[in-house]
Amino acid sequence: MPHGGGPCFFMDPPPSAPQLWDRLAAYLRGIDAGLGQRPRAVLVISAHWEAARPTVNTATQPPLLFDYYGFPEHTYRLSYPAAGSPELAARVRELLGNAGIESDGDGERGLDHGVFVPFLLVYPEADVPIVQLSLQAGLDPQAHLALGRALAPLRDEGVLIVGSGMSYHNLREFFSEGDAAMQAAERFDAALSAVVEDTSPTQRDAQLAAWKQMPDALAAHPRAEHLLPLMVAAGAAGTDPGRRVYHDHLFGKALSAFQFG
To answer: Which residue among 54, 135, 252, 255 sits deepest, i.e. has the most Cβ atoms within 10 Å of its Cβ?
Structure first.
């Protein structure tokens, strides 16, 4: 799930692109209806939390972490009072432990903007409990696919597993108008979409683990943190196929979202 840039949906777009975030916002607002059934809770893996071991937010009422800088003052007064779920947090740690993955709990950290900003659109009433799980330091794609595999049983327990990142995340080039950056983003997006939609889950996961071999991979992701939430979602998908459910261009850079099952 692309979460945009900072609090992008809650500030004025640039005059040169007045509808810049409209299509992404519409996609996020439509997620709930597209599921067919509302989940009892959501587990979110956000690109904006890394820890030495996978760490689960265990708070009953998690605060917000305004981890963006230089934006309008009102964006630091956003509110999203979604409940946490210590029960789900404990279940996450149980499943990870069953798979031999050591984890930690954190009852103090707030939900970062990779969670509360998009979910202000997904569930604006904040009426679905949310638990956040960190990425693991080292950013190993195989480790994050394994996280997803361990968490797969949650899907049959009414939990929606969401990877919140961006399919393109090169901030140095994001605002560039150069053809080279746009073409690189297009090539990577096409390759990533083909991998996610591969009908063989084994081949899909193998290609995701080797993502740096995709065309222009490091031009799209100089660092892997915004791609790894997708790995967790893919790992949890099991044999369910993936499909691209959103595609757009922001500042000329291709951007996509994917859904499994």
So the answer is: 135
Mean pLDDT score, 112-116 = 98
> Do 118 and 229 form a contact (C-beta atoms < 8 A)?
no
- Six token digits for residue 219: 């031009």
Give the ranges where 105-216 is alpha helix by DSSP (H). 113-122, 141-151, 171-174, 179-196, 201-209
Cβ atoms of 51 and 134 closer than 8 Å: yes
How is 136-166 classified by DSSP, letter by letter?
ETT--HHHHHHHHHHHGGGGGGTEEEEEEB-
Q: Name all domains of the chain by residue range, CATH numbers in brackets.
A: 8-260 (3.40.830.10)
For 176-204, what is each residue's pLDDT tens digit?
Answer: 888 999 999 999 999 999 999 999 999 99
- What amino acid is encoded at 105 in this protein? G
pLDDT band at 13 (very low <50, low <70, confident <90, very high): confident
